[in-house]
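Methyltransferase domain-containing protein
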Amino acid sequence: MQSHQYVHLSAASVQGWRNYTSQAVQLLDLNRNILDSYVLDFFTEDLWSRLNPKWTAVLDKFSPGDLASFLQNGASIKQESAWPLSLLAFRAASHALSLPRKAVSSVNPLLHYLSQQVQTGSIKLNKPEYHEISPAGQHKLLQHVFRRHLKPKKQHEVARLAIVAAQVARCVCDGVMVDVGSGQGHLSRLLAYGHDVRVVCLEAEDKFIDGARKFDHQLEKAVEKMTRKNTSLPLLPPGPLACCLPPPAQHGPTHLHQGVWPDLQSRGEVCGLLGLHTCGDLAPTLLRIFTSMPACQAVVSVGCCYMKLTTASEENPGFPMSNFVRRLPGHALSYESREVACHAVEMYTDRLSLGTDNLKVHCYCACLEEILVKHWPHHYHAGLRSVNNAHHMDFST
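Tokens:
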């Protein structure tokens, strides 16, 4: 498998990706003792003893900074003695089989791909400054009216995905997107008012629908003021609808037509499916609808909460969706390992680089878990709230 900033799956490359998947599954299966664990259980399940004694002899001498370097591809670590071959192989294989992790610096690769697909020549990006951040952490693309109620992290996600979704909508979806799991509508509002995309919002939680309508009303007031200076702003806001989207096998692709946009198919229109933080089985459901619904020309999905994917269902499992993967021995992933997949390795390297003071909270939690399991076993893995600046406290506090 060649290393790229983005993955392009095609008929010509599918065998290479099957080989990659087979190797990745083998590596995961060999190291289940590491995958199926939480730091919280370090003492209760004696996780240190799960490792190869030859590994622990080396790792025991590591500083937190050394552990951070161990997780980084290509980083060097001072060695007092030769590492066991199995540890060297584990590190090399883990890095070799990791998917590309570097964020793309531009949307141009996507535009080039879309140009090839629709054969319309080059597609120009209207706002090349989409990735710029102000010193205060605010996203420069988003005017204040779009930044309201959004923290910088959410601004980053919404601004970047809106650029992608808008280009996809215009190129292959006739300017129509269905935002599934739209929440309070932050992404949809930016698409509708900032990119002139027609949007329908689907959300199962009534409280989020109420919030979306409230924020829509606030934006409409702001737009009224803006139209006095700029009459080219779009007039139609996104339309929020309360909807619980079942797997397509239960209702078929017509469910989306009849329940969401009744006149979409009759008008001969096409659309795209969009999801930011498609939690658990929502992401597989979108993919299945995409493959079974002719009117749907594209799907843009950013998944999350992989541990919530169903694995027991024989008809519509959330993981694995691929028949090829399902046939691989050892492909199953536990709840713990799927939850680990939700966390960025960069987060761990950053914390390790900061030193022991920022890590002792994990030790506090593991010690507390040991006490709880011993005296109150019914509180095993109980959800505990985090405490601000806990690393400045001692355990007795």
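The chain has a mean pLDDT of 79.
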